[in-house]
Amino acid sequence: MDPLVLARVQFALTAATHFLFVALTLGLATLVALTQTRSVVSGSAVHARMTRFWGQLYVVNYAVGIVTGLVMEFQIGLNWSGMSRVTGSVFGAPLALETIVAFFVESTFLGLWIFGWDRLNRWVHLVLIWVVTLTAYLSAYFVLVANGWLQRPVGFEMVDGAARLTDVGALLSNPTAVLAFFHVLFGGLLTAGFFMAGVSGFHFLRRTVEVEFFRRSMRIGLVTVVVSVIPVVAFGGMQFEYVQPTKRGGGDGAAAAVADFSARFGPDVYMPPRGAQVGLGLMVSMWFLMVVLALVALVKLPFGRWLVRGRVFHVVMILAVPLPYVAMVSGWVFREVGRQPWMVYGVVKTRDALSPGVGSAAMTVSFVVFTVLFAVLFGVNVWLLARFARRGPEGAQLGASPPAEPVSPAMSPTF
C-alpha cells in the first residue's frame, strides 16, 4: 500500500485519539477547579467530596492522555521529517513552548495537587489546581498556534527553501489559532458537562444513596452543557471566514486557488477529498442533537426532583456522553482532511513532508504497531474511567489518607 496513505491514516488515528483525551482533560480540570473553589470558600463538605471524586477521574484521563501525546509526537518525528526540515523553525517553536508548559509546569503543579491533600494549606492547594487548569489552556493554545499555521501560514518567509519566522505576533495572533482555541475550550467544557451528567445519570439509575452528591453533579454538568453549546458553534462558525477557498467545496475562490497552485506547483488534485464535507455534516448533526438536549436540560434545571427521578432522562444523558466526542472528531476531519493535498497550505505538500526512505513495509509495521497501541490505551482509559466512576464517591482514593498500620502485640506499650 502507498506509504503516504498509511502515514496519513496513522496520523489521523493517533491525533484523533489523543484529542479525545485532551477535550475531557480541559473541561474536567475546569469543573474540578470550580468545585474545589466552592468547597474552600464555603466549607461545603459535599463539594469537597465532589472535588476528590471528579478529580480522580480527571487524573486518570490526564495520565493516559499524556502517554498518547508522547507516542503521537514520536510518530510525527518518525514519519514527517520532511516537514520539519522545511518548516521546523516556525512550526516547532509553539510546540517547544507547549512541551515546556505541559511537561514542566502543568505536570509539576498537578503532582503537587495530587499529593498535597491535607498536607498543604487549603488556599495553596486551591491555587495549584487553578495553575494546572490555566497551563492546560496555555498548552492547548500553543498546539493550536502550530496547527493554525499549517492552515493559514503567516509571519514567515522562505529562505533557501526553509521557512524562517519573521513575525512572532502574527504567528501567535493567527485567527485560525485564536478562534480554534476558544472553539476547543468550550468544546472541552461541553464534553465534561455531558460526561458529568452521564455518570450522575448512571448512579441515579442504580438508585444511589448519594442523592445530594449526584444531584449537584448532574446540575453542574447540565449547566455546563447549556452555557457551552452556543459558544462552541459561534467560535466554530467564525472560523469559516478564514477557511481555505478549496475547502469550501467550489466557487470562484476555489477555482482561482486551483489555478494559482497549478501555475506554481504543477498539476495536482487541489480540491480536498469528499470526506471533509462528510465530517462537516456529521459535526453539525451532533451539535444539533446537543442543542436539543441543552434545551431539555434548561427546562429541567429549575426542578431538582426531575434531575433525580427522571429515569428516561438519565438513560438519555448516559447515551449522550459520546456526542461531543463524535462532533470533535468530525470537526477535526473537516479541518485537517479539507487542507489536503497540503501539509502547510500553499507552502508544503503532504507528499513532500513525508520522511524520505519510508517504504511500504516499514510503514505497514509502524501503522499496525501504533494502531494497536492506541487502541489499547483508549480501551484502558475507558475501562479505568468506568471502573472509578462506578465505584462512586466512597471509592475515591484521591487525597485519601493511607490506612493506619496495625500495631503488633510486641510493639504495644506496656502499662
Automatic annotation (TrEMBL):
It is found in: Cell membrane. GO terms for biological process: aerobic electron transport chain. Residues 396-415 are annotated as: Disordered. Its main location: membrane. Keywords: Cell membrane, Electron transport, Heme, Iron, Membrane, Metal-binding, Transmembrane, Transmembrane helix, Transport. One of its GO terms (molecular function) is oxidoreductase activity, acting on diphenols and related substances as donors, oxygen as acceptor. GO terms for cellular component: cytochrome complex; plasma membrane. It is a multi-pass membrane protein. InterPro entries: Cyt-d_ubiquinol_oxidase_su_1. The chain crosses the membrane at residues 12-34, 55-78, 90-115, 127-150, 177-199, 220-240, 278-299, 311-334, 361-386. Belongs to the cytochrome ubiquinol oxidase subunit 1 family. This is Cytochrome ubiquinol oxidase subunit I.
